[in-house]
Specification:
Blueprint (H helix, E strand, L loop, with lengths): L3 E9 L4 E4 L5 E15 L4 E15 H7 L8 E15 L2 E15 L10 H9 L11 H8 L1
Parallel strand pairs: 4-6
Antiparallel strand pairs: 1-3, 1-5, 2-3, 3-4, 5-6
Length: 145
């Protein structure tokens, strides 16, 4: 069977849903939207391009890791197998795009949206305003051995 592995960078659109099957297997599912961005030189600004919306299914250890960490508007990087599923809806024939997640990670490039991240950064750096943590003695001692 042909399998396509993808990496989708995006934002969670829905709160994760936990499904537990009779055999005890847990699956966590959520919708993820990824946008392409490009710089419009004429307008001198960044503009949104095409949008991809996928349903992500997490099983086993990935599901356990997602529970309690991922919520609506969480920026993520998801890698896994891409699949499409055709189904009949009231509006006609539809296609669902799904990713069977092999790995899910927080997108740290947009990490300021994580609960408590500002407090952790301030505690690490000494003071958030001055950025004094760069020369903290305990960090230097750990670094220098």
């Amino acid at each position: 069977m042909f399998e396509t592995t993808v990496a989708v960078v995006g934002t969670v659109l829905t709160e994760p849903r936990i499904h537990t099957f009779t055999d005890g297997e847990r699956v966590v599912s959520f919708r993820l939207a990824g946008n392409s961005r490009r710089y419009d030189r004429n307008a001198e600004r960044w503009v949104d391009g095409d949008r991809l919306i996928v349903t992500v299914h997490c099983r086993r250890r990935v599901a356990d890791g997602v529970i309690g960490v991922v919520g609506e508007r969480t920026p993520l990087v998801v890698t896994g197998r891409l699949r499409t599923r055709d189904f009949e809806a009231a509006s006609g024939r539809r296609t669902a795009v799904e990713v069977e997640a092999a790995a899910v990670g927080l997108d740290l490039a947009r990490g300021n949206r994580f609960p408590g991240s500002a407090e952790r950064l301030a505690a690490w750096s000494g003071t958030a305003a001055t950025g004094a943590g760069v020369d903290r003695p305990d960090v230097a001692a750990a670094r220098d051995g």
